[in-house]
Amino acid sequence: MTNPNVELSSAYQTILKVVEQVEPRIAAATRAELTDQRASLKLIASENYASLPVLATMGTWLSDKYAEGTVGHRFYAGCQNIDTVESVAAEHARELFGAEYAYAQPHSGIDANLTAFWAILANKIEGPALTEFGAKTVNDLTEADWATLRKRFGEQKMLGMSLDAGGHLTHGFRPNISGKMFDQRSYGTDPTTQLLDYDQIATAAREFKPLILVAGYSAYPRRINFAKMKEIADEIGAVFMVDMAHFAGLVAGKVFKGEEDPIPYADVVTTTTHKSLRGPRGGLVMAKEEYAPSVDRGCPLVLGGPLSHMMAAKAVALAEARTPAFQEYAQNVADNAKSLAEGLMSRGSKLVTDGTDNHIVLLDVSSFGLTGRQAESALLDAGVVTNRNSVPSDPNGAWYTSGVRLGTPALTSRGFGAAEFDRVAELIVEVLTNTEAAMASTGKPGKAKYTIADGVADRVKAATDELLDAHPLYPGLEL
Ligand SMILES: *Cc1c(COP(=O)(O)O)cnc(C)c1O
């Protein structure tokens, strides 16, 4: 095939011209977003650039079909093509990850987790209750049985990684429904090494005895040993769930192998498809066979009708992820993170855990005398897009923070290599050493205000433009 970007160029021009006639502001915003994405040095660890074949697959009439249910068991007639789409997506997911079972319907990572939690509750709480109440299905339960069951659902416990150590809101924290469903406790990291301490997790698990032990993170710059986590879960009879939303691309690309690959160890694995996996915005659940019937209840239990166009795009992205080119990308993501980390540390920066072995670098900006908020804003002024993030036991809390999270997937997709990431490190340090916390109106050092020395932001912006020009986004696509 010739360059798909060139092939799709005229198609996108036509599409935008047609959209323009209906709602010009949307056509304009779509064009502007491409310009902005092309001009931004994107270090947001959860973002990426899906291929144009993936993006193009989303924009079709597959969206027009209702297909509640599962492949071959739909509540609507005429779902033969949707069955094909969903089967192909699930097949690619199973083959790519070596999973026993895959469910391609979740609309996002949060939805995948909610599907997983209820599948686990169905297997561990609802199923045994049916037997106890002498019921074949939930329809046979009396009102009194239901009242008992509802209470049991609400009494379950979850143990996950603490937010300030890099865990995710959906692992039992209050802003997410999981924090209202479950009695949650969390494990942190070792105060000295900032690494997961499996002995400490085992102690917490023995004490708390959760129904679900969750592993997974969105801001932890290290790999997890899933064999050790599984051992802990087995010892206390917990279900072991892994949320690999952030690092699925590294699992798919075989960078995380053996005990670092969650699939053989976890009962249920959830992921997003749009982060390091580089697919469309969406979610996936994979599971051991025994959980399959419960996971299949995701829609309509907690999910709205399947987004068939998105499942189609997931299938295309997963097909791409099965190629050698994707494995090379995944290895580069990890190598580039190392280069970025070393580039920062060799120039005097402090990193959480003193390095990385995944796609994330967590920069502790307190050594620059800044909060995460100040550092994030100053970097943005210089064209470097990051997001502020807590560091373990953060003295500045979750709003101002003391850290900045950096990730390599997006720029790796643009073709940045180790040398470019070393240059990025140099530019980040240049901005931060030339930024000072400014006084707040109270007369004390502020947590949000800052000043950058004259000319630094412009100089760094010119340097980032040069890097971006050398690695164009969607080369060949002209709007
Ligand atoms: C991003 C993320 C999610 C949520 O994904 P959405 O698609 O935004 O709902 C869930 N879990 C983890 C670990 C994540 O990093």
TrEMBL record:
Instruction: Note the superkingdom of the native organism.
Output: Bacteria
- EC number(s) stated in the UniProt entry for this protein: 2.1.2.1
What CDD domains does this protein's entry cite?
SHMT
Give the pathway annotation: One-carbon metabolism; tetrahydrofolate interconversion; Amino-acid biosynthesis; glycine biosynthesis; glycine from L-serine: step 1/1
**Which reaction is recorded as catalysed by this protein?**
(6R)-5,10-methylene-5,6,7,8-tetrahydrofolate + glycine + H2O = (6S)-5,6,7,8-tetrahydrofolate + L-serine
- Cofactors required: pyridoxal 5'-phosphate
Localization recorded for this chain is: Cytoplasm
* Any Pfam family the entry gives: SHMT
* Enzyme type, top EC level: transferase
Task: List, for all copies, the residue spans of the domain called Serine hydroxymethyltransferase-like.
Answer: 20-123, 156-428
What InterPro entries does its record include? PyrdxlP-dep_Trfase, PyrdxlP-dep_Trfase_major, PyrdxlP-dep_Trfase_small, Ser_HO-MeTrfase, Ser_HO-MeTrfase-like, Ser_HO-MeTrfase_PLP_BS, SHMT-like_dom
According to the UniProt record, list the residues that bear N6-(pyridoxal phosphate)lysine.
K275
Give the main localization category: cytoplasm
* Gene3D superfamilies linked to this entry: Aspartate Aminotransferase, domain 1 (3.90.1150.10), Type I PLP-dependent aspartate aminotransferase-like (Major domain) (3.40.640.10)
List UniProt keywords, sorted A-Z: Amino-acid biosynthesis, Cytoplasm, One-carbon metabolism, Pyridoxal phosphate, Transferase
Instruction: Enumerate the GO terms in the molecular function aspect.
Output: glycine hydroxymethyltransferase activity
What does the entry list as the binding residues for (6S)-5,6,7,8-tetrahydrofolate? L163, G167, H168, L169, E289
Which positions does the site annotation Plays an important role in substrate specificity cover? H274
Q: How is the quaternary structure described?
A: Homodimer.
Q: Which family does it belong to?
A: Belongs to the SHMT family.
The record describes the protein's role as: Catalyzes the reversible interconversion of serine and glycine with tetrahydrofolate (THF) serving as the one-carbon carrier. This reaction serves as the major source of one-carbon groups required for the biosynthesis of purines, thymidylate, methionine, and other important biomolecules. Also exhibits THF-independent aldolase activity toward beta-hydroxyamino acids, producing glycine and aldehydes, via a retro-aldol mechanism.
State the protein's name: Serine hydroxymethyltransferase
**Designated gene of the protein:** glyA
